[in-house]
């Protein structure tokens, strides 16, 4: 039986407000949305954890939430999804990150965010050490959304504990990820690290990706390239995984799905090539679904059988 996967990162709550927009406001040139539905999904690192749990793998989460509506809702959704909640509330001033999207029909009208950057790195590192002493996790997923949880101090502790670290990166400080097993940037994020725009071609992605992999001593670099699929880069190999064209409904959470599928299948002992191909297909599947969507195991098995 595969071991539990630990997800560490920036936990968020996604709120969706749905309705119809049939007219403009007389107060300003903006649509008036008549609301008929409001619901919540786990977001950020919490969405990665939910994807892992739905794929029938035990999962726990370490992050930061506030003592507020958003934090309480996240805790409730963790319980409902059978996810072990190790999130901490550092103080009574901390705000839970909440992303609220107003949707009319299939069109997102506006998104507004409530968030606070976390700066208590040492406290979280102590919590991580305590947590790792109590459980066994071969694979740790780092879901970095640049909200302060995935600090240099915390990454040092994670990489000291296991070599099997999968990172969904953010920002331009990749020194903190040095030596990770796999880092999964999109093309824009890779361009930031390269210091110049990278063309979305096999040759360009392979060239820059290889240099960055060697610079930061990763075992693998997986570059997601939108409609052109993914490129997996290792020290002695580059493979391009194409994807069939589909109608894109909503890209929210697609990157979380990719890293979750990778973690689950690698944790089960599948090869890196098989896991990347499965993650590529899973990402293609979820962007055709409405809102933040978590693929289940039967759906994943079905699309893989079609290959």
Cα radius of gyration in angstroms: 19 Å
Number of strands: 13
Quaternary state, please? single chain
| CATH architecture group name | 3-Layer(aba) Sandwich
CATH class: Alpha Beta
Taking all residues together, what is the mean pLDDT? 89
CATH fold annotation: UDP-N-acetylmuramoyl-L-alanine:D-glutamate ligase
Low-confidence stretches: none
What is the chain-wise order of helices and strands?
EEEHEHEEEHEHEEHHEEEHHH
Q: Which word captures the global form?
A: globular
* Proportion of strand residues: 25-35%
* Structural class by SSE content: alpha/beta
Count the domains. 1
Task: Tell me the helix content.
Answer: 25-40%
Distance between the termini: 26 Å
Number of helices: 9
Write the layout of secondary structure elements.
Elements: E1 5-9, E2 11-24, E3 31-44, H1 45-54, E4 59-62, H2 69-80, E5 84-85, E6 97-104, E7 107-114, H3 121-134, E8 140-143, H4 152-161, E9 165-168, E10 182-183, H5 187-194, H6 202-216, E11 220-224, E12 230-234, E13 237-241, H7 254-267, H8 272-286, H9 297-305
Parallel strand pairs: 1-4, 1-8, 2-6, 4-5, 8-9, 9-10, 10-11
Antiparallel strand pairs: 2-3, 6-7, 11-12, 12-13
Helix pairs in contact: 1-7, 3-4, 5-6, 7-8
């Amino acid at each position: 039986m595969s071991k539990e996967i630990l997800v560490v990162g920036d936990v968020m709550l996604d709120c969706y407000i749905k309705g119809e927009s049939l007219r403009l406001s007389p107060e300003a040139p903006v649509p008036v949305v008549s609301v008929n539905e409001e619901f919540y999904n786990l977001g950020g690192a919490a969405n990665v954890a939910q994807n892992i749990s739905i794929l029938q793998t035990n999962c726990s989460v370490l992050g930061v939430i506030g003592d507020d509506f958003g934090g309480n809702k996240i805790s409730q959704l963790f319980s409902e999804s059978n996810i072990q909640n190790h999130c901490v509330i550092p103080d009574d001033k901390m705000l839970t990150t909440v992303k609220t999207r107003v949707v009319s029909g299939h069109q997102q009208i506006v998104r507004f965010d409530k968030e606070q950057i976390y700066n208590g790195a040492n406290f979280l590192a102590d919590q991580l050490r305590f947590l790792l002493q109590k459980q066994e996790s071969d694979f740790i997923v780092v879901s970095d959304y640049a909200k302060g949880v995935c600090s240099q101090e915390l990454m040092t502790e994670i990489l000291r504990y296991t070599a099997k670290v999968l990172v969904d990166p953010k920002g331009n400080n990749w020194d903190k990820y040095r030596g990770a097993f796999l880092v999964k940037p999109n093309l824009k994020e890779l361009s930031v690290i390269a210091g110049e725009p990278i063309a979305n071609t096999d040759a360009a992605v392979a060239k820059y990706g290889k240099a960055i992999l060697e610079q930061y001593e990763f075992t693998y670099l997986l570059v997601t390239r939108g409609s052109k699929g993914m490129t997996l880069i290792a020290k002695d190999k580059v493979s391009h995984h194409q994807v069939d064209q589909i109608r894109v409904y909503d890209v929210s959470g697609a990157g979380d799905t990719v890293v979750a599928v990778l973690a689950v299948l690698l944790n089960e002992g599948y090869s890196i090539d098989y896991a990347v191909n499965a993650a590529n297909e899973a990402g293609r599947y979820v962007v055709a679904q409405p809102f933040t969507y978590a693929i289940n195991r039967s759906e994943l098995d079905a699309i893989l059988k079609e290959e």
